[in-house]
Amino acid sequence: MTRPKLVAIAVIGLAVALFFMSGLDRHLTLQSLKANRELLVSYSEQHRLAAVSLFIGIYVVQTALSLPGAAILSLAAGAIFGAVQGTVYAVIGATLGATLAFLVTRYLFHDTVQEKFAHRLTTINRELETAGLNYLLFLRLVPLFPFFLINLAAGLTRLPLRTFIIGTLVGIIPGGFVYVNAGASLATISNPADAASPRVLGSFALLGLFALIPVIYRKFTRRA
User: Fold this and answer.
1) 186 DSSP 8-state letter
2) Where do the H-state alpha helices sit in 22-156?
3) What span, in angstroms and rounded, lies between the C-alpha atoms of 169 and 88?
4) How far is CA 153 from the centre of its chain?
5) Is the separation of the CB atoms in 196 and 178 below 8 Å?
6) Cα–Cα distances in Å, from 133 out to 138, 170, 171?
7) Cβ–Cβ < 8 Å for 137, 208
8) pLDDT tens digits, residue range 21-80?
């Protein structure tokens, strides 16, 4: 591995370590959000542009470094900015952060993984080049794997950057709106997990299956 890549890994590791050593993770809680909601709303009303920029920036860093707190940030978006605008800001921040995580992973590890496991990844790469958007939409809509894990894993494949951005942007809107909308009624939330009911998760799963219909159809027609 080259020196620039080692330096990049060291910087990322240091940033993550500083996050936990500083105790910032203890502030990304539902209790802290409820306790500071009025202060945050007041600041947002007086300094709208700064509040929006700061929120999106925090969301980008959290997602890019795969730090905990995404659910709390989405709830905060609704509590501070409202359901509609909060969803827009949260989706922008999450998409930008995910794209950074994708690019960093691709820069650091993509070539090594592709060279070492080339024969095993041939089929996967071919599928992603032809139906990558469908697969990504499915993974974004159906919470089978953690959000950060999909970002990192996608960076190791040959999934086109444009496909990753579009799939992420579109795929996280439904889930993002659910959490942000719940944040708009923060007093009724006692646990971040309460934002997504089994019925809502089932609806996401159904949307994810619809995203795979073109892939299933192509495979069926090839065999016919």
Assistant:
1) G
2) 30-46, 48-64, 70-81, 83-105, 111-116, 118-141, 147-155
3) 10
4) 13
5) yes
6) 9, 10, 10
7) yes
8) 988 888 889 999 999 999 999 999 999 999 999 999 999 999 999 999 999 999 999 999
Task: At 197, list the tokens.
Answer: 């009911």
- In degrees and rounded to multiples of 5, residue 108 shows phi and psi of -80, -40
What phi, psi does 54 have (nearest 5°)?
-65, -40
pTM of the complete model beyond 0.85:
yes
Q: Look up residue 106 and give its DSSP letter.
A: I
Question: What letter would DSSP give residue 67?
Answer: -
Cβ atoms of 94 and 70 within 8 Å: the answer is yes
Q: How many residues are there in the chain?
A: 224
Rounded to 10°, the helix 198-223/173-184 angle is 170
For 21-57, b/e burial (b = at least 16 CB within 10 A) is: eeeeeeebebeebeeebeebeeebeeeeeebbeebbe
